[in-house]
Amino acid sequence: MIFTTCKKLVVLLKLLLCVLPVLSRIEASQPYQCLRLSSAMDQTSSPDVGCVGDSSVGSDELHTSIHTEHGLFSGQYIRSPLARAVYYKIKEDEFNKNDKHVYWYRVVLSRMPDDVQPKFVQFDQDDEAEEFLENCQNKSNQLFTQLFYSLARPVLNLFMTQTSINGFLQRGSMFVFSRPQFEKLLNISPYYKGETLLDLGAGDGRVTKQMSGYFNTTYATEMSTVMVRRLTAEGFKVLGVDEWSSNGLKYDLISCLNLLDRCDKPLSLLSEIKSSLKPGVGRLLVAVVIPFKPYVEFGSKTHQPTEHIHIKGSNFEEQVSHFVTIFKTAGFEVEKFTRLPYLCEGDLRHSFYMLTDAVFLLKPL
Predict the structure, then answer these.
(1) Which of 345, 257, 346, 341 shows the shortest CA–CA distance to 50?
(2) Alpha carbon distance 292, 133 (integer Å)
(3) CA-CA to 305 of 20 to 30 Å: which in 41, 125, 266, 311?
(4) What is the mean pLDDT of the chain?
(5) Rg of the chain over CA atoms, in angstroms?
(6) Residue 304, phi then psi, degrees to nearest 5
(7) pTM score
């Protein structure tokens, strides 16, 4: 029995040795849809966001310090691209473990109109965010699982969207806000119970779970059939993408998280949401990635929307200010807004990926 087990291990090691060179080339050339640690805008247009009054190392400094350190164990003499990537990930994890990432949450309010500034809600990295980041690191350290993901992803990408791939592989979960942050945005207590929540584009339902405990009934929509199965398995009532606004239901809260830049007709969507909210009490919770760059994943060969939201501004604050105007034109008033990291589980190269989210609580006019 021991001999048989050893023989299987030898076969497995031989197979791994054959796969590693191929995997290294895949990992070296694999494009990612999320940016590491900070948005491109913050790196180029808002250098003071995350630097002023902050003694911690910013994302640019981290990236530079990891790749320019010298010495025998700096990583520059590691020949294998995969081994080098793992080494850099270890160094990156060491940095992130002791970093509160205050630059993820900071806004320069002086750049914004006077009537918008008081609506900002300041958050920071709380326990739930830290727990998510720790789980990301643990999953990223599962070598054989990550090797399988890296091999499966380019194959599945031939006939599946990225969202469906993540659903099929049960990976790529997202984190937008914690429960305490959600409570503060909506000005509710931990014991609040509303009637109905609708989460548009719910994905795998992880963020939906953060909100569902505050409502008696939770509905969700999703374009990916793979994700629909996962949402159904979680017990959510999944509505058709053409059903939720025409079935006569009125919702206490509709969440539209990181969807306006992924749908074909965002302005029409805002109009449908407004007519589906409960009069007087209904609210809309919107999250948009800044910088705003539309990319339609489903039903478009060009990946460009047929309805365009033209957002002006060269930094976070300017684009958020323009969104306030867009929402007002669509019939909504911004009650509160904040800046949060939009986090995603990572891979062999990075434990997690991050984009910058602007999150708005809107009231119909």
Answers:
(1) 341
(2) 25
(3) 41
(4) 83
(5) 22
(6) -110, 140
(7) 0.81
Q: Tokens in use for 362?
A: 């809107």
Q: Which residues contact 173 (CB under 8 A, 6 or more apart)?
A: 204, 206, 344, 345
With contact defined as beta carbons under 8 Å apart, do 194 and 216 qualify? yes
* Interatomic CA distance for residues 287 and 356, integer angstroms: 10
Specify whether the CB–CB gap between 290 and 320 falls below 8 A. Answer: yes
The string of pLDDT tens digits covering residues 143-174 is 888 888 888 888 888 888 888 888 888 888 99
Region of poorest pLDDT, from 67-71, 100-104, 164-168, 309-313 = 67-71
Number of neighbours of residue 10 by Cβ within 10 angstroms: 10
Which H or E run includes 179? Answer: helix 179-186
Distant-in-sequence contacts of 186-192, Cβ < 8 A, 24+ apart: 186/214, 186/253, 186/283, 186/285, 186/361, 188/214
- Sequence letter at residue 30: Q
359 phi and psi angles, rounded to 5 deg:
-115, 125
